[in-house]
Amino acid sequence: MAYSVDVYDKNGKVVSKVELNAELFADEKVNKTLIQEYYLLQMANARHVIASTKNRGEVSGSGRKLYRQKGTGNARVGDRNSPVRKHGGVAFGPTSERNFEKFMTKKARKLALNGLITLKAQEHGLAGLKLSEMQPRTKDAATIIEALGLTGKKVLLVMKNKQDGIEKSFRNLPKVKYLLLDYLNPRDVMHADKIVFLEDALASLNENK
Questions:
Q1: 192 or 49: which carries more pLDDT confidence?
Q2: Phi, psi angles (nearest 5°) of residue 22
Q3: Separation CA 11–CA 30 (nearest Å)
Q4: Bridge pairing between strands 126-129 and 194-198
Q5: Domain 4-47+100-205 in this protein, CATH class
Q6: Following DSSP, what letter does each residue of 76-106 receive, concatenated?
Q7: CA pair distance 157, 144, nearest whole angstrom
Q8: Nearest alpha-carbon partner for 204 in 58, 18, 72
Q9: CA–CA distance from 145 to each of 8, 14, 170, 175, 180 (Å)?
Q10: What is the spatial distance between Cα 46 and Cα 41, in angstroms, rounded to a whole number?
Q11: What is the chain written as a DSSP string?
Q12: Of 51, 112, 150, 175, which shows the fewest CB atoms inside 10 Å?
């Protein structure tokens, strides 16, 4: 099935339609397993190792044997850093050397992201926006969001290149996030109610590279 994206002007009127490239965005190319793998990769690679413990060789304390091996009537024992003792080291605890990083090829990531955008197209979750450089005014950005009928919804605004006026206008709006096309990622796509592409970003997305 071929999908198209309505392109709106800043007043919320449809000015054109863009047909999505069927070679990139088609139902038969959607691989949900690959999409899940890409999402988990993003979450894993963003993970910071916080928990870190010391083993018996790293805690502060003497390595002297607490008492002699035989003749006391007690079980034999080592030094005070033993994991079975209070303030001793931790046996098999987490360390800062853990690595959660995952890897996917560029081709697999591209295929997964295209599949995710196809799913958004199925849900009518894509839109285009004809918008040139604007003066940095949050009020103007809010008017555009209202004209598009997206007030109160989670909106992802995608640009091809950095545009300070547009960024500064939209950055203070709640539930509106902007990013460059090169940084499009599964988490932001999945969590957005509507993905709004600027015209040049939509044209670049549609290219078979």
A1: 192
A2: -65, -20
A3: 34
A4: parallel
A5: alpha beta
A6: P---TT-TTSTT-PPTT---TT--------H
A7: 12
A8: 18
A9: 11, 14, 9, 11, 19
A10: 8
A11: ---EEEEE-TTS-EEEEEE--TTTS-GGG--HHHHHHHHHHHHHHT---------TTTSSS--S-SS-SSSSSSPP---TT-TTSTT-PPTT---TT--------HHHHHHHHHHHHHHHHHTT-EEEE------S-HHHHHHHHHHTT-TTS-EEEEESS--HHHHHHHTTSTTEEEEEGGG--HHHHHH-SEEEEEHHHHHHHTS--
A12: 51
pLDDT tens digits for 45-62?
A: 998 888 889 998 889 888
The ranges assigned to domains in the chain are 4-47+100-205, 48-98
CA dihedral (129, 135, 137, 141) in degrees, to 10, reads 0
Instruction: Please give the single-letter amino acid code of residue 87.
Output: H
pLDDT in tens, 116-173: 999 999 999 999 999 987 889 999 999 999 999 999 999 999 999 999 999 999 999 9
